[in-house]
Amino acid sequence: MKLDQDLLTSLGHSLVDGDLTDRDLLARTGDTPNIRILPDACTLKIGGQSIIDRGRVAVFPIMDEVVQNLGKHKMILCTGAGTRARHAYSVGIDLQLPVGVLSVLGTFVAMQNARLLHYLLAKYGIPYIEPSQFAQLPLYLEERGAVVTRGMPPYIFWQRNPMAGRIPPHRTDTGSYLVSEVLGTRTMIYIKDEKGLYTADPKKDPNAKFIPKISVDELMAMDLNDLVIERPVLEMMKTAQHTKQIQIINGLEPGLITRALNGEHVGTIIHV
After folding, report:
1. Positive/negative CA dihedral, 245, 34, 37, 40
2. Is residue 15 part of a domain?
3. How far is CA 140 from CA 70, 78, 122, 134, 135, in A?
4. Share of the chain above pLDDT 90, in %
5. Alpha-carbon distance 66 to 229, whole Å?
6. Is 224 helix (H, G, I), strand (E, B) or coil?
7. Do 58 and 253 touch, CB atoms closer than 8 A?
8. Domain count within the chain
9. Over the stretch 145-194, which tens digit does the pLDDT of each residue have?
10. Over the range 30-49, which residues count as b (16 or more CB within 10 Å of their CB) and which as e?
């Protein structure tokens, strides 16, 4: 098929005729802003080990709060994998399996958690969707007000190797963040079992100090040994087009999810 060159912009001509490894050309492709596909939606990542693994005592109140916000906020609920994924990783590593296969195992655990939440919300018509169904996600949000999906990015075998060790580096925090960034959602909220970010794990270190707000550069410069968020999220935020701020909140404290959805600062805000 012959391309009508007269219809191409200057950048279009460069892309057709140029080299896609050219750094100057690649930089020019960022001059045109991309649209926010779902600017009114909110992405919420519900922790696996921190929330779902605790069972009904933690999950039921959060599901109740989600239901209370139907009609007020459009919510994309992404699930963590938690303890069962860690067990799968430990067995897989003992069996000498590669990182891509470990990623498959973690993905199925996050899927199990997503289906658990879906069944709890089924009577409200909240669907569970796979990444292959994301084209229908706007319709589901418009019709039902919320959807449930797994937080694990769909890399599976194509998961990259980490800088150290064998645990898949892009897990459910990262996958949830990518949902928010690609779709341009209004907010990205991580629901965990701590107030937010601390200088150390407060469960292990009584001297850990709470950090209410911090920039990505400041946080990366601190080089903390223990983080409440996956490190690749911070790396992705540095090149973000849309999701340049995230908030981490304590989902075990009633009402904080609603307040965070309403735009209040109730945990730790990390920003570019």
Report:
1. positive
2. no
3. 13, 15, 13, 10, 10
4. 87
5. 22
6. coil
7. no
8. 1
9. 999 999 999 999 999 999 999 999 999 999 999 999 999 999 999 999 99
10. eeeeeeeebeebbbbbbbbb
Question: What interhelical angle do 99-121 and 172-183 show, nearest 10?
Answer: 70
- Residue 155 belongs to some domain of the structure: yes
Q: pLDDT tens, 84-137?
A: 999 999 999 999 999 999 999 999 999 999 999 999 999 999 999 999 999 999
The whole domain housing 248 covers 39-271
Q: Tell me phi and psi for residue 45, to 5 degrees.
A: -100, 120
CA dihedral (240, 242, 247, 253) in degrees, to 10, reads -140
- Burial letters 120-148, b for 16+ CB under 10 A, else e: bbeeeebbbbeeeebeebeebbeebbbbb
Give me the pLDDT at residue 71, please.
Answer: 96
Q: Which residue has the tokens 């599976």?
A: 156
Whether 24 is in a domain gets the answer no
Burial per residue of 154-176, b for 16 or more beta-carbon CB atoms within 10 angstroms, e otherwise: ebbeebeeeeeeebbbbbbbbbb
As a whole number of Å, the end-to-end CA separation of the chain is: 44
Contacts of 235-240 spanning 24+ positions with Cβ under 8 A = 236/174, 236/177, 236/178, 236/181, 237/177, 237/270, 237/272, 238/272, 240/181, 240/272
DSSP state of 272: -
Q: Indicate which CATH number applies to the domain containing 132.
A: 3.40.1160.10
Has residue 230 been placed in a domain? Answer: yes
Q: 163: phi > 0 → left, psi -120 to 50 → alpha, else beta; which?
A: alpha
Quick: pLDDT tens for 230-246.
999 999 999 999 999 99
